[in-house]
């Protein structure tokens, strides 16, 4: 699609693809983060159930459950949408809202549990908050900013509250939590950079593969398929039309007096003629058709689902368009064409092309610059 685009255009497309890859990874990993967040809150509440007010736990779990359902609905909508609608522009902001809401509820609830005045409860809550921070690194690794915001909303409220408490044990836990958070921040930067490079390398390799595949199948002068690529695709189209009993026509085209152009005006003039004829053919064929340069000044087209009268019209349009080509040399350019229609007696593609080639020979023998029908 972008094989002939400029370097800035290719770079912009790769950046867009990498951004889309990051979004897809984020949404795939989100199932773990959504269920992990809810499960951690349930386990913590179960452990602390006998030492805390039940109403506080119920309210916290209720709010967290509502945010969990909201995130699951978002994920369900995303994965049911067609891929064309799963754009970062549309979904990143939506994901940010659900993430901030869920992490904010988790961190706020953890802070409320902290204030129970029980050192064991405070230790357990901080331990679970640290665990949530670790899970955030793995779940939001494609987006460093999301990882940092999630950690800040979950871990910092408890840590800051402990830091201002009078007991040394509380302050020590807060200090340890801050040191851990510092290591996590450094790790998220390295991880996100590594993932960005991996996504970019994958897309650049994919782009290079497409360029190589296109070059291997394309005639460099005309931009049409080369002989090998033409027959490879033409065989598939031929079999499809044969099995579906659809009309199919072959068109052979040969430039008139091409050797005279090369001999009289040089190979550069001949190459320019080939380029212009290739451009005319590319503009004339449909996506379902197959066109290629078989060698020298000889071209072939396979017109899918096309009856003979329509193929003859296409051939005449091609012949007229070629005659209108403006060349650097004084002589004009003309072409002779042969058209043949597949019938049920033809055994293979080569038999159909041979019929078109015989018609082409008759067009040349009759004076050139004309179309003959087999």
From TrEMBL:
Sorted UniProt keywords: Membrane, Transmembrane, Transmembrane helix
GO BP annotations listed: cell adhesion involved in single-species biofilm formation; negative regulation of bacterial-type flagellum-dependent cell motility
EC numbers for this chain: 2.7.7.65
One Pfam family in the UniProt entry: GGDEF
Nucleotide-binding listed as a keyword: no
GO cellular component: plasma membrane
Listed InterPro entries: Diguanylate_Cyclase, GGDEF_dom, Nucleotide_cyclase, Rev_trsase/Diguanyl_cyclase
Protein name per its UniProtKB record: diguanylate cyclase
Organism: Pseudomonas graminis
């Amino acid at each position: 699609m972008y094989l002939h685009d400029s370097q800035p255009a290719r770079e912009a497309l790769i950046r867009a693809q990498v951004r889309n890859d990051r979004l897809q990874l984020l949404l795939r990993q989100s199932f773990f983060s959504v269920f992990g967040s809810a499960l951690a809150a349930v386990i913590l509440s179960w452990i602390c159930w006998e030492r805390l007010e039940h109403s506080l736990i119920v309210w916290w779990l209720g709010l967290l459950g509502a945010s969990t359902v909201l995130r699951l609905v978002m994920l369900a909508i995303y994965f049911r949408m067609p891929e064309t609608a799963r754009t970062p522009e549309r979904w990143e902001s939506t994901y940010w809202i659900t993430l901030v809401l869920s992490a904010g509820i988790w961190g706020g609830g953890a802070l409320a549990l902290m204030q129970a005045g029980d050192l064991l409860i405070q230790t357990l809550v901080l331990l679970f908050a640290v665990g949530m921070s670790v899970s955030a690194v793995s779940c939001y690794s494609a987006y460093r900013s999301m990882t940092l915001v999630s950690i800040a909303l979950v871990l910092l409220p408890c840590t800051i509250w402990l830091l201002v408490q009078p007991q040394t044990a509380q302050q020590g836990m807060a200090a340890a939590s801050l040191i851990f958070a510092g290591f996590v921040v450094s790790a998220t930067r390295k991880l996100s950079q590594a993932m960005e490079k991996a996504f970019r390398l994958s897309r650049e390799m994919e782009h290079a593969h497409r360029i190589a595949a296109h070059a291997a199948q394309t005639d460099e002068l005309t931009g049409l398929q080369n002989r090998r690529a033409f027959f490879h695709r033409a065989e598939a189209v031929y079999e499809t039309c044969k099995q579906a009993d659809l009309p199919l026509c072959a068109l052979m085209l040969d430039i008139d007096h091409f050797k005279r152009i090369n001999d009289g005006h040089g190979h550069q003039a001949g190459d320019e003629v080939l380029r212009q004829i290739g451009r005319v053919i590319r503009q004339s064929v449909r996506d379902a058709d197959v066109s290629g340069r078989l060698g020298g000044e000889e071209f072939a087209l396979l017109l899918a689902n096309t009856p003979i009268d329509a193929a003859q019209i296409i051939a005449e349009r091609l012949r007229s368009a070629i005659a209108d080509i403006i060349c650097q040399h004084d002589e004009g350019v003309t072409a002779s064409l042969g058209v043949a229609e597949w019938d049920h007696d033809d055994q293979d593609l080569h038999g159909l092309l041979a019929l078109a080639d015989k018609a082409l020979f008759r067009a040349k023998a009759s004076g050139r610059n004309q179309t003959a029908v087999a």
